[in-house]
Amino acid sequence: MIRVVLPAHLRTLAGVHGEVELEVEAPVTQGSILDALEDRYPMLRGTIRDHATQRRRPFVRFFACEEDLSHEPADAPLPDPVAKGAEPFMVVGAIAGGG
Amino acid sequence: MSRVRVLVGTRKGAFVLTSDGKRERWEVSEPYFAGWEIYHLKGSPVDPDRLYASQSSGWFGQTIQRSEDGGKTWEPVGNEFTYDGIAGTHQWYDGTQHPWEFARVWHLEPSLTDPDTVYAGVEDAALFRTVDGGRTWHELSGVRQHASGPSWQPGAGGLCLHTILQDPSNPERIFIAISAAGAFRTDDGGQTWRPINHGLHSEGIPDPGAEVGHCVHRLAMHASRPGVLFMQKHWDVMRSDDSGESWQEVSGNLPSDFGFPIEVHAHEPDTVYVVPIKSDSQHFPPDGKLRVYRSRTGGNEWEALTNGLPQSDCYLNVLRDAMAVDSLDSCGVYFGTSGGQVYASADAGDNWTPIVRNLPAVLSVEVQTLP
Q: Around Cβ A99, how many Cβ atoms within 10 Å?
């Protein structure tokens, strides 16, 4: 079971509390996790990655195992601890200030 | 007894303000969608408990929310706004061509006849429509594909389609306005559009009387007389008596002809409200006095309405979608400010009271008169 941590605003939007657990077939990648996440929670489509291009939104980051994986290819396998559910895949709203 | 529900969109959430028909005591809701920008929310004229809200964020983009119970609970619906066909380009600030890119929904206009049909005005300027209650959105691309489209340029707030007026006497006719392209009209239900800017005069563009390129801030209409339109332009308050075919300036004695909102009294088609603001960059009221101006003659002759409004040291703004009227016998007028106040007048503007004083900056105000 893959563990996903969402930022507070997206937990509210999806109506979830705490971590989300997802079944994801190997190989576990950013793309396959986000596909599974959006299938389960369609209201998250377009909020993490662009509807059309599937590119990560600029102020969203992906962290796991104390690494910033935001710039890794969407189809690159994620670290084993994420694939085995030992560590969460974290979707993070960048600390970007603003109004 | 009738009730009034005021829907307020702010920089950090939505609020629902409710009162009975006396409009003296108000309940203010907790924030909905706290932390998100709510550019606009509005109810269906045929099903007032059906509300739609535009929720957006610099982090997480655009979401549309729908309520079936007057705003008590909400459900996210479709948020995919994809331009029809090849998106093409418009003019950018530096004169180059820039791809059309969806940024956010500025305005939601529910159909006059069907609660599942809603028009959405978006940035970069385009008109979308849903016919399934917000689940899916499709562009009415005749607007953006007008021959002048590649020449449109963004105003300081972006290239936004911010005003949508449906003609209650003709379901095929819709008026829209875009900053900074101007006003447009369709007479075939949204398939084709043409500019309706004859008579506008805008200093600051190469041809002050050009067919397009005008920074129209807002249009208003009275339902009983849809051929008469009022316009607050970047500068100048304008009036058209022929459905936008031609315009005449009616700024008259206003202390500033710059401003954002313009609204018409619910029962008097020639009673019009504006909030003069200093421009070009100050964007606060002249002389530090917050004054609504009312014309009872359809323009040209304006009176300042000041009772209950701050008349010193007031330096806030009132945005284009932040004024509305109710339809009670004594027409109520409402507006929200960049300082977080929502002011209400239960006597057509003679006297004003703040309903609430300390909200986040107000982006939009809509009013529903309920049985």
A: 8
Number of structural domains (chain B) is 1
Q: Please tell me the distance from the alpha carbon of residue B345 to that of residue B273, in angstroms, as a whole number.
A: 12
ipTM of the prediction = 0.93
Dihedral angle over CA of B269, B342, B50, B223, nearest 10: 10
CB contact under 8 A, A43 and B82: no
- Would you kindly state where each structural domain of chain A is located, as residue ranges? 2-93
The string of pLDDT tens digits covering residues B213-250 is 999 999 999 999 999 999 999 999 999 999 999 999 99
**How many degrees, rounded to 5, is the angle at CA B111 between CA B272 and CA B50?**
100
Q: Which two tokens stand for residue B76?
A: 């996210």
Q: What CATH number corresponds to the domain at position B309?
A: 2.130.10.10
Mean pLDDT of all residues belonging to chain B: 96
| Residue B182: domain span | 3-370
pLDDT given at position B205 = 87
DSSP letter at B149 equals: G
**CATH of span A2-93:** 3.10.20.30
The residue of A10, A38, A40, A45 whose CB has the most chain B CBs within 10 angstroms, and thus the best one to mutate to test that interface, is A45
